[in-house]
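dumping this here before i forget
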Amino acid sequence: MPPAKKKTRTYDHAKIRAAVTAQFGHVTEAVRDLGPEQLARPSGLGEWSVADLAGHIAWIADSLAGGLARPPAAIAELTAVEWPFATASLAGKISEAARETLTGAPLPELFEAAAARMAGALDANPGSRVMHLWIGDMTLADFLVTRTVELVVHTDDLNRAAGLDIPLDRQALAACTRLLADALAVKAPGGSVEVRIPPFAVVQCVEGPRHTRGTPPNVVETDPLTWLRLATGRTGWTEALEAARVSAGGERADLSGLLPLMS
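structure:
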């Protein structure tokens, strides 16, 4: 008998919208208090300063509204779980677009304007709306799930670079953890390794003998924030193991060849 096809995870659109709005609001509050010395610090992301990183976060909301202002597409080409694999080729284009869009105003003003524009656009469009995007046409519902990844990961970047403690919305953290865990299962389909990211996700992946009952022979376990850093290249596999942020047991439990999923 062939293995059962895994169901695609679904997300509650209203909850994801609330999570995106809440996480952007947390960053908006923090940006108001950033001083010149903090803004000038390196972000840890290439040549970006903290100011550049903050501007990019503002662009995440502004570009969402911009995408909804364009005429809709007919059919979605890309799902949320496929999105992580389609991002690498657009990094330079996105960076340039953000720089062109968000110049000439103080960061707090940019955040306030982006928040208002995003809220208005979300009020006016259902989750089924198909957005015409550089990365591939997606429903608004699916694209919003990907915004939790962008916002949570970059909030973590901002916290580490500027010495902040911006809170992570629980629903946003859960959604981006699950999306990137599911992406790992898409990249390495199979059932020989169980990846546990409590309390949000458990997935099976990697070809080999399939686990059916009892304790799996190959188990990887980590916390959500470490998982996001691994999946996006902020932390290396060996570094996380040596720091005891990841436990990995079993001959197939080495995920170093599969990570990062996006960078």
